[in-house]
Structures are given as structure tokens and as C-alpha cells.
């Protein structure tokens, strides 16, 4: 490993060109490695030396949860599609031919779920605003152009389409002035979420160019940063050359009266164990920022109540605020990672029941679906019918927030669209069907 003058590790990324070598380390045979590489032509692969050297237990690979978190698996995609791509790789087909086949596979993986392209893109006048989403009245998402990669990619990431090199699938903008203009036209917006990718992949000078103009927008109460950096590269806040400048930028945000919230993504207790993570957390908290933690529930990685209760307790002890357990979204290899909603509720309930009240700031399991964030509150029996009890944590239609509704129990359902209404002919977010009967 290359060292800098301070004796600390420099960031080193591993990409698809390193994949075969790393798969050998996991003990995979030649045919297995070929099929994993075939999956990696469709879904992006990137990791780094910190994840490889500090987080993965290679003696347990390929079953180690952190290995599964960042390395593609051959059965993530239908076997016939993997075989076609593997045959092309084995025949050393031109890259253009391989990518054409990979693009065909991507088209049926729902690259932009929940109406992101159709319903969430805001407009100034009649013109769509690139690199932004505005789903809920109070919150705008902004995708800074230089932040549309990550220190490592999660295999289940619902933003996978940002990383495959297709401009038509990507949200990104470097026009902060346009964002500020949009905010001033929409005084109902009180929070901006910088997302990606990972905004913390950007150096402090670039990050500052996006954040400082937001401090002049009086209506903004909070600036949020969605990031996996604390788990995948905590050096960003400790030993990177611009770590101190970054923390001073955070202090500047807080000094201007804005709440700076880190939306930190932790998927497993292993990511919280290194001492370096604790140091990074304390430095961020020392700037006056808050850290809220979230992650989806993922089969084969964290579908165990003990993992979640362990994460929440550790996060609380470190000064972070447990915030969300999400349901795996309806995109990418959802079939591979999804946990049925009934099981998801039981995982959440068991974990939630075993922690103190200070950890019970967490909400879930929550689906970020087209109409909004739908929380599964439980399974019960009403009037002899077994049902899911649900409510909106957030919604496109604010009048729906907090109101309970019911769905017929289905042990196989993994997403909102798998459910059917109970005690009604439609869900409250669905339009009323027009009565086409002729008047008498």
C-alpha cells in the first residue's frame, strides 16, 4: 500500500479491471469468476483498499456480508442473461458488443424507480431542471456533478444507474445558481439534500462551491448530505489532506444557523467496528453537525434482528441518531436482495423491541415508493381478515401523511405494488375511478 508523508494510506480504488484478481482471493473458480464478471458488465463494481483490507473477512468469503455488500454475485441476474454475457466475454467480443447486450439487460431492471424521471424532475417555467428532484414539498434533492460516484458501490444500490456510464440514466448538475433560483421561487422548500453518488467523494474546494451559496438562502433550515463515506472511507474526515478544511466548512454551515445533517449509510455492524470510524464520527459531531443513520434491509447481508439492534445501539453510543430501516427498492437485482414485507416487519419489530427508548428514533420498515414513504406498522387481524397496517411517513400529497391505511396480507409481497387494498376498493393514494354507468 502506498503511503503519504503522514504515514497514512492513500485512497486506492478497485474497479472491474481488478475484479478477477479479487475473486480469486475469495476462492472462486474460473467459471464462477467469468459469470461474476458478466454480471459486472451490467451492474457497476467499485471498491477500495480500506473495504478490502479492513472490512471484509476473506476467510468467510464469498459468504461474508461485507464481501456480498460490494462484490457482484453470479445469480443476481437471470441465468440465461448471465450466460449470454459470459459467452461474449469468453469469446473476447468487442466491448461495444458486450455493452449493447448489457444495456438490453439494464432496460428491464427499472433503472429509475418511483417516478424519478417522470414525476420528480422540477421545472423553471416549462423547462426541466437537470440534476434535481422535488418529490415532497419541503425537500429538494440535488445531484452535484462531481459527486456522482462513491468510494465503493453497494451491490443493492438503488442509484446504480448513476454509475453505468449512460448519460440518459444519470442525474447530475454543476449549476448551483439554478438550484438557488429554484429555491427562491419555492419558499415551501426548507431542506436541500445533496446526494449522488456520494457528495463526500468531492474535495473541500468543490464541496464548498455547492454549499456556500445555500447559506444565503434564508428559507433553508437544513442542509443534508447523503453519504456512505463513514463506512467506506472514514479517512475523508481524519487524515485526507482536506479533512480539516472540510470540517471547518461544516462549522461554517452551523454558524450560519443551518442544521447540517449527515445521512450516514451503515449496512452492517462490521462497518462500525474500526477505531477510525469513531474518530471520524467525533470530528463531524464536533463541528456541530448531526449524524442520522439509515440503510435498507437486505437478504443475505443484514436480514437479522441482532444485526440491526447491534447497529442501533452502537450508533447511539457513538453519538449518532438511528433514523431509517428501508425496504429494498424496486430496481436493479431486487428479486435477489428483497425481504418479504411480513418478514421485514418482524425483523424490525424484534430489533426495535430489544433496544432502549433512545434508539427508538428509528423508523421502518419504510418503502420509498411512487406516492411516498410508506411504513409497515404491523400485521394484524381486523373483522376476521389478516391485514398489513400501513401509514405514510412522507407523501407527494401531504394530506396523506400520518393517516393509517390497510392492505390485504400477502406473505410473498415485497413492495407496495404487490399489495391490494383491504376494506376498500382502492388505496388512499390511488385516483377515484370514474363511474362510467349511464344515468337512469
Uncertain parts:
1-7, 435-440
Distance from first to last alpha carbon: 83 Å
What's the mean pLDDT score? 90
Number of DSSP strand runs: 15
Task: Please compute the radius of gyration using only Cα atoms.
Answer: 22 Å
Q: Could you spell the SSE succession in H and E letters?
A: EHHEHHHHEEEEHEHEHHEHEHEHHEEEE
Total DSSP helices: 14
The secondary structure category is alpha/beta
Q: Biggest β-sheet, characterized? A: 11 strands, mixed
Strand content: 15-25%
Q: Note the overall shape.
A: globular
Estimate the helix proportion, in percent. 25-40%
What is the subunit arrangement here?
Answer: single chain
Read across the widest sheet, the strand sequence of neighbours is 5-6-7-8-9-10-11-12-13-14-15
Can you give a write-up of this model?
By secondary structure, this protein is of the alpha/beta class. 30% of the residues lie in helices and 19% in strands. The strands form three sheets. The chain has an eleven-stranded mixed sheet with strand order 5-6-7-8-9-10-11-12-13-14-15. A two-stranded antiparallel ribbon has the order 1-2. Helix 11 links the parallel strand 9 (259-265) and strand 10 (290-297). The radius of gyration is 22 Å and the shape is globular. The chain starts with 12 loop residues before the first strand and ends in a 32-residue tail after the last strand.
Amino acid at each position: 500500500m502506498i503511503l503519504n508523508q503522514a504515514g497514512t494510506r492513500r485512497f486506492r480504488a478497485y474497479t472491474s479491471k481488478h475484479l478477477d484478481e479479487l475473486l480469486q482471493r475469495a476462492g472462486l473458480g474460473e467459471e464462477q469468476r467469468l459469470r461474476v464478471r458478466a454480471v459486472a458488465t451490467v451492474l457497476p463494481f467499485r471498491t477500495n483498499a480500506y473495504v478490502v483490507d479492513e472490512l471484509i473477512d476473506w476467510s468467510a468469503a464469498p459468504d461474508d456480508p461485507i464481501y456480498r455488500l460490494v462484490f457482484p454475485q453470479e445469480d443476481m441476474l437471470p441465468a440465461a442473461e448471465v450466460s449470454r454475457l459470459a459467452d461474449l466475454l469468453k469469446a473476447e467480443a468487442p466491448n461495444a458488443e458486450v455493452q449493447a447486450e448489457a444495456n438490453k439487460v439494464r432496460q428491464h431492471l427499472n433503472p429509475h424507480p418511483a417516478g424519478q424521471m417522470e414525476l420528480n424532475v422540477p421545472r423553471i417555467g416549462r423547462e426541466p431542471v437537470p440534476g434535481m428532484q422535488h418529490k415532497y414539498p419541503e425537500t429538494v434533492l440535488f445531484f452535484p456533478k462531481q459527486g456522482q460516484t462513491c468510494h465503493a458501490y453497494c451491490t443493492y444500490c438503488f442509484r446504480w444507474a448513476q454509475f453505468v456510464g449512460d448519460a440518459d440514466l444519470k442525474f447530475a448538475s454543476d449549476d448551483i445558481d439554478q438550484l438557488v433560483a429554484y429555491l427562491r421561487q419555492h419558499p415551501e422548500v426548507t431542506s436541500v439534500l445533496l446526494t449522488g453518488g456520494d457528495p463526500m467523494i468531492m474535495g473541500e474546494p468543490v464541496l464548498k462551491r455547492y454549499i456556500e451559496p445555500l447559506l444565503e438562502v434564508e428559507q433553508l433550515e437544513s442542509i443534508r448530505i447523503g453519504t456512505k463515506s463513514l463506512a467506506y472511507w472514514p479517512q475523508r474526515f481524519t487524515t485526507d489532506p482536506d479533512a480539516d478544511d472540510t470540517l471547518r466548512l461544516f462549522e461554517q454551515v452551523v454558524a450560519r444557523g443551518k442544521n447540517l445533517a449527515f445521512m450516514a449509510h451503515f449496512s452492517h455492524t462490521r462497518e462500525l467496528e474500526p477505531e477510525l470510524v469513531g474518530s471520524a464520527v467525533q470530528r463531524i459531531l464536533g463541528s456541530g453537525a448531526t449524524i442520522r443513520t439509515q440503510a435498507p434491509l437486505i437478504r443475505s447481508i443484514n436480514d437479522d434482528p441482532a444485526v440491526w439492534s447491534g447497529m442501533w445501539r452502537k450508533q447511539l453510543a457513538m453519538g449518532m441518531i438511528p433514523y431509517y430501516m428501508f425496504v429494498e427498492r424496486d430496481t436493479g437485482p431486487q428479486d435477489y436482495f428483497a425481504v418479504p414485507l411480513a418478514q421485514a416487519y418482524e425483523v424490525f419489530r424484534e430489533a426495535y423491541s430489544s433496544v432502549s427508548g433512545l434508539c427508538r428514533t428509528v423508523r421502518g420498515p419504510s418503502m420509498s415508493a411512487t406516492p411516498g414513504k410508506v411504513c409497515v406498522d404491523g400485521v394484524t387481524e381486523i373483522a376476521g381478515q389478516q391485514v398489513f397496517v400501513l401509514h405514510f411517513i412522507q407523501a407527494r400529497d401531504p394530506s396523506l401523511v400520518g393517516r393509517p391505511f390497510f392492505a390485504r396480507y400477502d406473505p410473498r409481497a415485497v413492495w407496495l405494488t404487490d399489495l391490494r387494498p383491504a376494506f376498500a376498493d382502492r388505496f388512499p393514494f390511488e385516483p377515484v375511478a370514474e363511474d362510467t354507468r349511464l344515468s337512469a
